Amino acid sequence: MKDLSKYKGIFPAFYACYDGAGAVSAPRAKALAWYLLEAGVQGLYVGGSSGECIYQSVDERKKTLEAVMEEVGGKLTVIAHVACNNTADSQALAAHAQSMGVDAIAAIPPIYFKLPEDAIAKYWNDISAAAPDTDFIIYNIPQLAGVALTPALLRKMLQNPRVIGVKNSSMATYDISLFLKEGAMVMNGPDEQLVTGLITGATGGIGGTYGAMPALYLKAAELALTGQVEKAGALQAGICRIIERLCSGKCNMYAMIKEVLRQQGGPDIGDARAPLTGLTEPDKAVAAACVAMIEETKKQYC
Questions:
Q1: Which 3 state secondary structure label does DSSP give 69?
Q2: What are phi and psi of 182, to 5 degrees?
Q3: Catalytic: which of 35, 139, 254, 301?
Q4: Which fold has domain 8-301?
Q5: Which parts of the chain have pLDDT scores under 70?
Q6: Catalytic residue at 139?
């Protein structure tokens, strides 16, 4: 039986790192990886939604993963999201991720065309076959992918010995219970329900706002997993208020988070890539309000 303990804890979804001209920047990716390592997180999820993966080329995604592994490989658990909207590119990223020594690869289902479950299973198994020595995690995010993981599809996928679990980003915690019942490890996706997900049985969480406030998520997980449920719930409510503020600007949330990082003294990792809406001047005041909220919440709970 596999030891899945390395998938426990808080895994920030790694942000896309660009230079001033908007090109993927390896030095900035290394700076962010080290910053998150020093924050005390247990792992990183590279190349997913927060990494703006659908707006990057295969070579750009490889460049980011190479930078992350050079900086923190062996120091943190690294999960590489490798899905593209075609099998060949996904397999290329999977093989590359294995060559880099990642702990696991992950993939959303194919998007746009609505495929039958047999076709989705073949897509995932073909990707997994390109990284035959690496764990595979299904990324369930039906609100964006347009298709939901079902218990029947999960059972089919668990016949593949490399498939260890699910990153579940559906908003129904009941889905966590369903997938656990099938024998899969589950990592909570929606940041707004980390505490509920952990109490339901998730081993940890992967989240797009974790990088803006890692101390708060680490504390929320600690409280939830040590039975301090009331305090954990109160902290989760505070985190949700911060998330609402992060989403209140004109710019895309990831552009806002990158500004929050800069204002916190963290690494400068650029802006969001078009067609995502980039930072505007008024957004800087919103980011400052978010920083103040984060600091106040840290004083209260950390």
A1: helix
A2: -80, -5
A3: 139
A4: TIM Barrel (3.20.20)
A5: 1
A6: yes
